[in-house]
Protein 1
Amino acid sequence: VKDTQDYDREVESICPFCGVGCQVSLRVKDDKVVYVEGINGPANEGRLCVKGRFGFDYINHDHRLTKPLIRKEGAPKGLNVDPANPLTHFREATWDEALDYAANGLAKLRDTYGGDAVSGFGSAKCTNEEAYLFQKLIRTGFGHNNVDHCTRLCHASSVSALLENVGSGAVTATFNEIENADVAIVIGSNPIENHPVAATYFKQFTKRGGKLIVMDPRGTSLSRFATHMLQFKPGGDVSMLNAIMHVIAEEGLTDDAYIAKHTENWEAMREHLKAFPPEDMAEICGIPAETLRETARTFAAGKAGMIFWGMGISQHVHGTDNSRCLISLALMTGNVGRSGTGLHPLRGQNNVQGASDAGLIPMFLPDYKSVKDPAVLAEFSAEWGVDNLSDQPGLTVVEIMDAVHDGRIKGMYILGENPAMSDPDITHVREALERMEFLVSQDIFLTETASYADVVLPAAAFAEKTGTVSNTNRQVQMGRPAVPPPDEAKEDWWITVELAKRLGLDWTYTHPSEVFAEMGRLMPSLNNITWSRLEAQNAVTYPSLSPEDPGQAVVFGDGFPRANKRARFTPAAILPPAELPDADYPMVLTTGRQLEHWHTGSMTRRATVLDAIEPEANCSMNPKTLREMGVEPGDMVRLTTRRGSIEVMVRADYGVAENMVFLPFAYVEAAANMLTNPALDPYGKIAEMKFAAVKVERTNSI
Ligand code: SF4
C-alpha cells in the first residue's frame, strides 16, 4: 500500500517472528492486513526489521488451512502432499467431526496403552494462554509430563545453567540496558540477522564509545562495529572463556567484594581456572594468547558489562558448560544486578520465554516449579482439581521421537511445531511421524509435519488472535486480532479447550483472559500483571513490584533466587564436539538463520517480499576453501554427513572460516536438518546443531 493512510483501521499487536517482541500497528483494509508499522513498545521504540515490516502477508496465502481435515482411508503419510491441494490425501470435515475424531484417536491410545503412549509438542509461536492450556491438557488428560516445545532446540542448555547457578532461567537484564553499559560481549549470536532490532541498540552502544567484544566462529556483520573480534575455532568456546577467566583471576581483576557478598564456590572456580592459561588454550580455541589477555582486561575494566549469547553457545553437547562459563565471567567481574550489567541469552521465537514460563517443558510446571516437588504437585492438583499429576520429569523433544521409534510413544498432539523440518536428523524424525498410530496436527498451514497427520486442525495466525506473549526481555505483551481467521480456522486456545472437553476434562474457559487469570494464581512471576493492565498498557515487564511498577529491567541486585541468595560458580571442563571431522567428512557444518527467513520457512517462504529477497536454498563457505575445491560461487554442491545428503547452491563468504559450511535451515528442498547431529547436551538435552562433520562435493553449475 503506497498511501499509508489508505486503511480502514489499525490494531496494535506484537510481531510474530523473533524474541525481541517489537510492537506493531497492523493497518487493515477490507479485512486484510495491508501495511505494518513499528510503534513505541519497550523493546523496539518504533523500530522494525524487514520481517516485522514486510513479512505479514503469509496470513493471506492460499495455502492457509481453512477447514478441518481428516486423512482419507489408505492415503500415504508424508511429504507427498501438496500444501496447495491437501484434498488429494485428506477430506474436509466439520469441527465436531474432526474434534471427535482427534479426541477419540488420542483417547484410544491412552486407554489401550496407558497415558504415556501419547505426548505433546506445543509451540513458542502461540500465546502464553495457549501454551499453558496445552501443557495442562497433556499433564491432566494423560497423567504424565511428556510435553515439550522448541525451546529444547533453542536455549534449553542456557536455561539449565541459569537455573543451576542464578536460580532463574530468564534474562537478568533487558537488552536495552546496554544503553547503560560501557562494555559488552556478544558471543555465538548473529543479532543483525536474528535479532535485528536488538542489534540496533548494540550498534548505538558502540557509537557512544562502548566497547563491543564479538566472539564467534563465523565473522558476522556485527564485527564491523566491534572493538574486539575473536573468531574462535568451532567448539573452542569453553577453552577460550576459561582462558579469559584465568587472566582475570590471575591478574587480580576480579570484583572481590561482589564475589564475597553474592556468590558461592569461588575458591573451587579459582583453582579450576589455573589449568587454562591462554598460552595453553590458544591452539585449542584458535585465538592468540595476547588477544585472550587483552580481551579479559577490557571486559574486566568495564564499569558495567553485559553478556549476550545465542544458539552458537547453546546448541552444543557442551552448551550448558558454555553458559556456565558466561555466568561465571559475569559473576567474577560483578556484572549482574546493576544498571548496565547482566546476562542475556537472546531468545529465539516470539514467545519462547512465555511458553517456557507457562510450563511447556517436561521437568517443570508453570514458573519453573519442579514436577518432583510434592508441595508443587499439591498446589497444582488443588487449582486444577485433579489427582493424576506425575512426579516424573517427562521426555524432551529428541527423546520423544526416540520413544516413538522404540514403541513407547504411539501418538502425538502437535500444535504449531514442525519437527519434520526443525529437529535434528529429520530422516529419523520423519520415520517416527510415519510410524505413529495416531497424530493430530494443529497449524495454519499443511506443514511438513502436518502431512503425516491423521487429522489436521486449522488454526488462526497471530494477526487473527487474542493473547499475551513474553519476549526475551521478560516483557509480557498484549497481542490483538486485526482480522478474522480465514473461513473456519479457529484460535488455538479454542481448539485445545474443545479437545480437552472431549478427552473428559472439565474445562469451561470462554476467553484467554480467564486462562491468564488462572496463570496469575499459580505463577508469582505474573504478580501485579493483569489482563486489564496489559490491555491498557500493552506491556509490563516481570517482575512488577506493584500495580504501578512498569517492571524491573534489571534483577538480582539484592540477591539471587537460590536458597542462600547467592549465585554459584560451576567450573566447566573442555568437552569436544560429539562428531569431529575425519578423512571421510573433513569439514565442519554449522546451521542457522538468515535475516529474511524464519526457522522452517513455513511463514516467511510464503511472505512475498521476504521470499523474493531470498528465494533459494543456499550455503556459505570461505572463498579460499571454494578455490581449493574448484568451486565457484553459485555452483551447486552436495553436502553429506553420516545422516544424509542434500544439494544446495553455495555462496562465498569471508566470514565463514576455512573448511567450514554455514547452512540456513529454512528450505524444505534442501533441509539442513537432514544433516545435523542429534547428540545431546546431558543437562539441557539440546542437540548439537552447531557442529557436524561434513563432506562437500561440487555437483554442477546452475
Ligand atoms: Fe519482528 Fe524480531 Fe524483526 Fe522485531 S526484530 S520486527 S520482533 S523479527
Protein 2
Amino acid sequence: QAKRQGRNRAVSFQSEFVEGVSRRVQLVAELRQALERDEFVAVFQPLFDSDERPVALETLVRWQHPERGLLPPGEFIPVCEESGLIVELGRRVLDQAARHYRRLVDEGLPGLRVAVNVSPAQFNDELVRHVTETIQRHSLPPEALELEITEGLLMQDPERAIELMRQIAALGVSFSIDDFGTGYSSLAYLKRFPIDRLKIDRSFVRDLGSDEDDAAICNSIIGLAQALDIRTVAEGVETVLQLDWLRARNIDEVQGYLLGRPMPFEELLPLLLRYLERTREPALLA
Ligand code: C2E
Ligand code: MG
Ligand code: MG
Ligand code: MG
C-alpha cells in the first residue's frame, strides 16, 4: 500500500513536472508569436522632482494577449529572459521609448527623460550597438535616455558591467539602479560604476511612517547617496504620508500610484500638460 502510494506520488510529481515544462514550452511559442504579431505595448509612469514637476517617464511593457487581456510583465518577462526572447522584446521597448520621447517634444514637452528597464540577459555588446543605433535613428538626445538595471547585474560580473556601462555612459545615456536595497551591493562599491540614480525599492517605502526599520533603511540610503553625489528616487509612493516623509529628507524624485499610475501615452499626455502648466505658473495655485 505504502509502496503504491509512493509510486503514485512519484508519478504525479513527474507528470506535474512534465506539465510545467510543456506549459513553458507553449508559453515560449506564444511569446514568439506575440512578437511577430506585435502584441507588446508600452505604458508609461511619470516621475516627479521635488517641485512636483514631471521629469521622467518609465517605460513599462504589457502583453496585450488576444484572449487573456492585458498581462503584467511578471507573467512573461521571466520566461522571456530564460528563452532569450528578452533581447528582441527589449529592442521593441527601447524603440517605443524613443518614439514617445519624440511625441513629447512634438507636444511641447521637451526635457523629460525616458527610462527603460534592462534585464541582465540584454546587457552585452549587442545592447551598446542597439542603444547607439536607436539614439541615431530617432535623433534621441542621449541625455534623455536612462537605463534601469539591477544590483544583481552589477554583482554578477562587475568588471564586464563597468566596461559596458562606461561605453553606454560615454554616449551620454544615464543609469539608475532599480529596486535598490534588495540586493547585496554596498554603496561604497557602487561608486565604481557610472551610476546617476538609485531607485529605492518600494518594499522600503511601503511602511515609511510606521516601520522604524524601513525608515532607517531609507534614511541611510538617501544620506549615503547624497554624500556620494548619486541622486535618489523613491518608487511605490502611494500615500501623502510617504511623500512628505521623503520630501523632508530631500529625496530627488518620486514615483508611485499617488502621483500617477502606469498608463498609455495618450492618457498620460494631458496629465503632463496640466502638471506643467500648474508648476509653470504657481500663482494659479494660490
Ligand atoms: P520596476 O522596474 O521596479 O517597475 C516598477 C513597478 O512598480 C511597475 O510594475 C509599476 O507598475 C509598479 N508600481 C509603480 N508605482 C507603484 C505604487 O505606488 N505601488 C505599487 N504597488 N506598485 C507600483 P510592473 O509594470 O508590473 O513591472 C514590474 C517589473 O517588470 C518592473 O519593475 C521591471 O523590473 C519589469 N519590467 C517592466 N517592463 C520591462 C521591460 O520593458 N523590460 C524589462 N527587462 N523588464 C521590465
Ligand atoms: Mg524600473
Ligand atoms: Mg523599480
Ligand atoms: Mg521595484
